[in-house]
Specification:
alpha/beta; SH3 type barrels; Rossmann fold; Severin; seven-stranded mixed beta sheet; 24% helix; disordered N terminus; disordered C terminus; Sec23/24_helical_dom_sf
């Protein structure tokens, strides 16, 4: 019986969810019998049978060069601009292994080159030979790369069939290379094609391209996203049949077959090495990224809620793992064997069901906990710490002079009304209840400046009653009734109060807020029930107990002392954070610095990081531009799935143990559960594993996370997430099942966790070392003997180098001066980012809107939105007269070239807007026009808004030469030389040189064994120094 069939013994009759002819029938992929780990007989490693290559029969031409109507004159297609024969960058960059000879066969000629480019810019290390590598001819066909014709075992589902070298025609660059005659702008200079610092082997005549690496031939992140995105428009992701999840950035429908969806959990390796020594040879971290309450996509089965009454869900009596699809029933159904600790226990009488001849329970298909990887269990009283009630929302509103004068207070109050009751125009259409928060949840409002003001919102009052608490040293809550009310019953009172607050406090003008006493009284108000605080702040809290002062005077940047600014030593804020977690309370801050001032996010944000909340930061808040973003983000905070009073435990198979957790939570001792005041759909946690022995290759490795939480509607539940990976004695096989998004996420979270201990230069060095170690480990141990001049990349880690470069260039880690508020905000954000948000943050998606195809931005005949292809993040790809959307999940810029067509501007922004200067620089959304282009761009933006995390999508104009946001546009072009770091090409050359030194045994570690690099994830020791 083949491995695959053994693993799905019960699923044999089910149609392949991805089969041809099934694509567009409604719900055709809901197979009548879910293919699942049913009989679970282990033969070798059943969980990871070889994934079939389902990408046959998909059109090969991804981006045939089509000239369509555009807003500037037609340009002749360069003669060598042949259509792509398949997507080499996704599948065969230079042969099946993803071997990148940096600048391999270049048949295409850029338009302005005088001489032809010759082949093989073969980069040799310092000890390189003078001959062409392995005697490869200098002008013939490209070399046959190692394993070129080997079957694509670990290849992803969306990959193309085999590409032969003859088909490998790369197109010319999108626009002409810059000629020195024209004055280059700083951005053009940063995007120049750099010269590689290496000798070319054999002294071949290279012509004008002497020593250059062709930027067209290095792995492209946009292509690695576009191909799978197209594939998953029409196919589902069955979680047991496929073992390599789709890239995190793309939308996909996961079909839960017993293994959790990648939206909830991603393993760095879906095929795990046998021992710690085998893992060390890959240099990869063994970890899991968990996003337990992740939002699901339309078309996915909602997570079922199961109630086992007073007894609670069945659990292993030894390791306390919850019942899951991988537990095996023996002895006719009387015994169940735990998949974590292999302990056989008796099945409780009320849970008994007989088994059939293949050892499968007869009621299995009626029991979601035995067929699905992610379920919610309702839990009885012994799991309660206090009586569960609907979530209490407490809005703390800053009413100091800065908030009032700069429009932040008006925006915040409007945002709360919008979040609770919807837009004014929505109300007329809806009938019945109009609140957006779950039934049972309640709302309270407190304002503060140098005093606190509590409001009685009782529905039998005509207007809210205000009680002033001026005792800051020992504040108490002056209300017992009426502080928390049902937002529907008290709708009139709440709306009138929020509309009056800005004018009420306009005449007071107290400049200094007292934050800590307000937080303490909020804890007192919520201590009986737990809940969620949403707090606005527009100035440094310099009044009363817990006052803060300006710590960052700008002199400590780029010094060892900088790390002190990224942390807090303030006892008052640390204590209130602990009290919140113990009370089951979490807090989100909306912090605005209207004049760009210092807010000490390191200290204030510590409270939200410890309690599992987040900070929304507006560094230069300007109300006409930012009020829409503020309003959308408050609405998202209030309406996304939120749990509170949460505890989390992660369990894994015998032979493995949890070695570290990374994220925003409270953890008082290592063995204890993680504690969260609140946890929501956008928060992720990184979990690292180490070996405490050898794994058994006959058994799979299992991981289970259990999150005990109270829902916003007041139910106490456990969200259980199960994931399985096979164990392989052949470590090379494991490299075929690497999840790039999870690896980058774990490394980023660990690096962020070290920012308060190590200086930034050491961390950037460690990230570089880590990249070299992973790629050199692959080269040394798993590729045989490729020519030394080639940079060989693992098939599933081709874009890894670019993502790590993006991390080094991010605001959290970059060299140079960066305000500590922004640095520490990004650091904490990275610690809680899910894979989707982090992937966008490290490499933005860029779409050209000046040459959209007429079908782009509209639904195709199957109802799927057609998205234009992404563009690489380099100024060399920017065309004159172009208009580009740049979205990194945090900000969305609309960059307009100085020579952009007036017709395009009128089509996009309306009549009269026919020049850049005519546009309103502070507009944050597009007008709703009837033009084709306007509809396309609005649809594209709506699609982008649906595939992001907690930050709202509003556009910010970046007009070339006019707006300050252009600096941000330049910063986001991560493939160019910027952010005090190299360009992508230079960086790959640098990494390649170190790999060659490592292979030659000449690499000097940038640290001598006691620094940060030697102790980076999965390296020589599992912990940092």
């Amino acid at each position: 019986m083949p491995e695959f069939a053994a693993h799905h013994a019960l699923g044999t009759g089910s149609p392949n969810p991805n089969g041809a002819g099934k694509k567009d029938e409604p719900n055709a992929w809901r197979s009548p019998v879910a293919a699942s780990p049913a009989g679970y007989q282990q033969m070798g490693s059943p969980a990871m049978g070889q994934a079939p290559n389902q990408y046959a029969g998909t059109p090969a031409q991804y981006n045939a060069a089509v000239q369509q109507e555009s807003y500037f004159p037609q340009q002749p297609t360069p003669p060598a601009y042949l259509p792509y024969q398949g997507d080499q960058d996704v599948n065969n960059l230079a042969g099946q292994m993803g071997a990148v000879g940096l600048g391999a066969d270049q048949a295409a000629q850029p338009k302005n080159k005088k001489k032809h480019r010759h082949a093989y810019h073969n980069l040799e290390g310092p000890g390189g030979s003078s001959q062409a590598f392995s005697g490869t001819p200098q002008d013939g066909a490209p070399p046959q790369y190692l394993n070129q014709n080997s079957p694509q075992v670990g290849g992803a589902q969306w990959m193309e069939p085999q590409i032969t070298p003859a088909m490998s025609q790369f197109p010319a660059p999108a626009n002409t290379l810059f000629s020195p005659g024209a004055q280059a702008s700083p951005m053009q200079y940063a995007a120049r094609t750099p010269a590689a610092p290496h000798q070319i082997a054999g002294g071949a005549a290279i012509g004008s391209a002497q020593g250059r690496v062709d930027p067209e031939q290095i792995p492209s992140v946009p292509k690695s996203r576009d191909a799978p995105a197209r594939y998953y428009l029409e196919n589902v992701y069955p979680t047991m049949e496929h073992h390599l999840p789709p890239p995190a950035v793309i939308p996909f429908v996961a079909f839960d077959q017993g293994n959790s969806s990648p939206k909830f959990a991603r393993l760095t390796l879906n095929n795990i090495p046998l021992s710690a020594q085998a893992l060390a040879s890959t240099c990869l971290p063994l970890g899991m990224v968990l996003q337990p309450l992740a939002a699901q996509q339309e078309g996915e089965q909602p997570v079922p809620v199961l109630d086992f009454g007073e007894t609670g869900p069945p659990r292993c009596t030894r390791c306390r793992a919850y019942i899951n699809p991988f537990m095996q029933f023996k002895a006719g159904g009387n015994k169940v064997v735990c998949n974590m600790c292999t302990y056989p226990m008796d099945v409780p009488g009320d849970y008994f069901a007989p088994t059939d001849q293949s050892g499968v329970r007869v009621d299995r298909l009626q029991r979601p906990e035995l067929t699905l990887g992610t379920v919610d269990f309702m839990v009885p009283k012994e799991y309660w710490s206090k009586e569960p009630v609907g979530l209490r929302w407490l809005f703390l509103i800053d009413v100091t002079a800065e908030a009032v004068n700069r429009g932040f207070l008006v925006g915040f109050c409007e945002g709360i009304v919008n979040a609770l009751y919807g837009e004014p125009e929505e109300k007329a259409e809806e009938s019945g209840t109009t609140t957006r928060i779950p039934k049972g949840a309640k709302v309270g409002i407190v304002t503060f400046d140098k005093e606190m003001h509590f409001y009685n919102l009782s529905p039998n009052l005509t207007t809210a009653q205000m009680l002033v608490m001026s005792d800051l040293e020992d504040p108490f809550v002056p209300l017992s009734e009426g502080l928390f009310v049902d937002p529907e019953e008290s709708k009139a009172v709440i709306k009138s109060l929020l509309s009056q607050l800005p004018s009420m406090f306009a005449e007071f003008n107290f400049p200094e807020p007292a934050l800590l006493p307000t937080l303490n009284s909020a804890v007192a108000a919520l201590s009986a029930t737990g809940g969620k605080i949403v707090c606005s702040l527009a100035a440094l809290p310099t009044w009363g107990p817990g006052r803060l002062f300006l710590r960052d005077d700008g002199n400590m940047h780029n010094t060892d002392a900088e790390k002190k600014l990224l942390n807090t030593e303030h006892p008052g804020f640390k204590k209130v954070a602990e009290k919140m977690v113990q009370g089951g309370i979490g807090i989100d801050f909306f912090m605005a610095a209207p004049s760009g001032g210092y807010l000490d996010i390191a200290t204030i944000g510590h409270v939200s990081a410890t309690t599992g909340g987040e900070v929304f930061y507006y560094p230069n808040f300007h109300s006409p531009r930012d009020t829409l973003k503020l309003s959308k983000e408050i609405k998202h905070t209030v309406t996304r799935e939120t749990g509170y009073q949460a505890l989390m435990k992660v369990r894994c198979s015998n032979g493995l143990q949890v070695s570290a957790y990374h994220g925003n939570f409270y953890h008082h001792t290592f063995g204890a559960d993680l504690e969260f005041g609140v946890i929501d759909a956008d928060k992720a946690i990184g979990v690292m594993f180490s070996y405490d022995g050898k794994l058994d290759p006959k058994l799979d490795a299992h991981f289970q996370s259990a999150l005990l939480y109270t829902t916003a509607s007041g139910e106490r539940r456990v969200r259980c997430t199960n994931i399985v990976a096979s164990v392989s004695p052949n470590t090379g096989e494991c490299m075929k099942f690497v999840d790039q998004d999870a690896v980058v996420n774990i490394i980023a979270k660990e690096a962020a966790a070290r920012m308060t201990e190590k200086n930034l230069k050491e961390i950037r060095g460690a990230l570089t070392e880590k990249t070299v170690d992973i790629l050199a480990g692959y080269r040394k141990n798993f590729t045989g003997n490729s020519p030394p001049g080639q940079l060989v990349l693992p098939e599933n880690l081709k874009e890894f180098g670019m993502y790590i470069l993006g991390l080094i260039k991010s605001r959290a880690f970059k060299a140079g001066k960066e305000p500590t508020d922004r640095r520490v905000h990004d650091m904490r954000m990275i610690k809680s980012m899910g894979p989707l948000e982090l992937s966008l943050y490290l490499y933005p998606r860029i779409v050209a809107i000046h040459d959209l195809d007429e079908k782009d931005g509209f639904a195709n005949e199957k109802g799927h939105l057609v998205m234009p292809e992404g563009i690489r993040a380099s100024f060399s790809k920017v065309e004159e007269g172009g208009a580009y959307i740049v979205d990194n999940g945090q900000v969305c810029l609309l960059w307009l070239h100085t020579q952009v067509s007036p017709n395009l501007l009128e089509d996009l922004f309306g009549e009269g807007n026919n020049s850049l200067k005519a546009l309103d620089p502070f507009q944050s959304s597009l007008p709703n026009l009837d033009t084709h282009l306007n509809a396309q761009v609005r649809n594209i933006l709506q699609y982008m808004e649906g595939t992001r995390a907690s930050k709202a999508l509003t556009i910010q104009l970046a007009r070339q030469g006019l707006d300050g946001a252009e600096y941000e546009f330049a910063r986001l072009l991560y493939e160019d030389r910027n952010n005090e770091a190299q360009s992508y090409v230079d960086w790959l050359v640098h990494v390649h040189r170190h790999i060659q030194l490592e292979l030659a045994g000449q690499r000097k570690k940038e640290d001598s064994g006691d620094g940060v690099g030697s102790t980076f994830v999965g390296l020589r020791t599992p912990y940092w120094g």
